[in-house]
Design the sequence.
């Protein structure tokens, strides 16, 4: 049963890597700036999922904290980029 | 791995949930890559943020609960945070896109 579980985790890791590759292509060819921000948002979600999957696989709880940190910082940076696109300024006086 | 044997009731659903999460992530990425318009491209990553992340988080909860021998639910933190942050991100990005399109239209 553990062998099956390891194969499933490997398959999930492969899928996340391919998804990050697709998002990277969108990041480079994206016609407008908001497309690039969207692709970046998707990439950090995938990185968080990869870290969670590594935590499941290695039976360690350290990865959970890193995933939480990535979720928080990714959210903050996406909000900052979207605010910059909206107003031309991140923190308004 | 690590010489710890997972019980079947945790390993089988966790494996299925991991596979579902991976397939959802791949589908979302293909949608992000292939859709024609920015407003269409907003949709596929949302599916990954909610459903795919939910699947992986439930799998993580199952495995850590089975290993510790007691219910471990601290992964709920990440899911609550994602549920709170995903609509805010989507709304701000959409408003930025609409404002930029309007600005470009008024310039021409």
Sequence:
């Amino acid at each position: 049963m553990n062998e099956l579980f390891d194969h499933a985790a490997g398959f999930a890791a492969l899928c996340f890597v391919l998804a990050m590759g697709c998002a990277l292509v969108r990041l480079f060819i994206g016609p407008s700036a908001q497309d690039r921000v969207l692709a970046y948002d998707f990439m950090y979600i995938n990185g968080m999922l990869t870290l969670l999957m590594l935590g499941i696989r290695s039976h360690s709880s350290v990865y959970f904290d890193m995933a939480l940190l990535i979720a928080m910082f990714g959210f903050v940076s996406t909000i900052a980029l979207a605010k910059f696109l909206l107003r031309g300024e991140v923190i308004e006086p | 791995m690590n010489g710890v044997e997972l019980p079947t009731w945790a390993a089988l659903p966790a494996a299925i949930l991991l596979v579902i999460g991976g397939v959802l992530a791949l589908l979302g990425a293909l949608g992000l890559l292939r859709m024609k318009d920015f407003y269409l491209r907003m949709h596929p990553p949302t599916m990954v943020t909610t459903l795919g992340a939910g699947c992986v988080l439930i799998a993580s909860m199952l495995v850590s609960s089975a290993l510790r021998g007691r219910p471990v639910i601290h992964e709920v933190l990440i899911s609550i945070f994602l549920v709170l942050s995903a609509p805010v991100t989507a709304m701000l990005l959409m408003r930025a896109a609409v404002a930029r399109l309007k600005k470009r239209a008024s310039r021409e």
